[in-house]
Amino acid sequence: MKTLRKFRITSIVMAGFAACGLMLSALHGQQTSLAAPVTGTWMQTITLEGQPSFQGLVTFNVDGTVTDTTQSDVMPPDLASPGHGVWMNLNPGTVRFRTVKLLSLAGTAGVPAGTAVTTGTLTLHDSNDFQTTGVTVFYSTSGQPTLTVPFTTVGKRVTLVD
User: What is the rounded distance in angstroms from the CA atom of residue 87 to the CA atom of residue 66?
Assistant: First the structure.
């Protein structure tokens, strides 16, 4: 009786793992099939409200991860790490993303200054051009929001041919 009960519990657990695996596999396949339009590296021009524009690079990977770096990452008073984050398709041609950068005080040998969390929505105009709108929220080392900055960008895909 105990052996039969253990077998049933084990069977139910294994069936649950199999169902989860199939579901995750289907979702991963869906993400990669929808991912093709945005995956790759893009040069972008970033505009913060009331500030001069600057350049950045962003790479969307087929696995749903994203990395970025900008000219402002090396401008005092804070220095920033490259941004690391995630993205997902909202619908064909529209992507939602979120990145996190680690901040340190310039001239202090890396004393932590908090984080910058960027969230935005990207809209593809065609296979080589996009526009985004979003917001970057700066957080202190204690996790308190200190500044919120809206932004827009326009991007051009990096290709082998200009």
Answer: 7
Locate the DSSP E strands across the chain.
40-48, 54-60, 65-70, 78-80, 83-91, 94-105, 112-126, 129-139, 145-157
What's the Cα-to-Cα distance from 130 to each of 8, 38, 49, 76, 110, rounded to whole Å? Answer: 53, 9, 19, 29, 34
- Confidence check: pLDDT of 24 > 60: no
- For residues 31 and 124, give the distance between their C-alpha atoms in angstroms, rounded to a whole number: 16
89: Cβ contacts below 8 Å, ≥ 6 apart: 31, 34, 35, 38, 95
Token pair recorded at residue 137: 């929220």
What distances in angstroms separate CA 132 from CA 81, 100, 151, 153, one per listed residue?
21, 17, 8, 5
Residue 4, burial from CB neighbour count under 10 angstroms (0-12, 13-18, 19+): exposed
The architecture CATH gives domain 36-157: Beta Barrel (2.40)
- Phi and psi (nearest 5°) for 99? -125, 160
Least confident of 12-21, 28-37, 44-53: 12-21
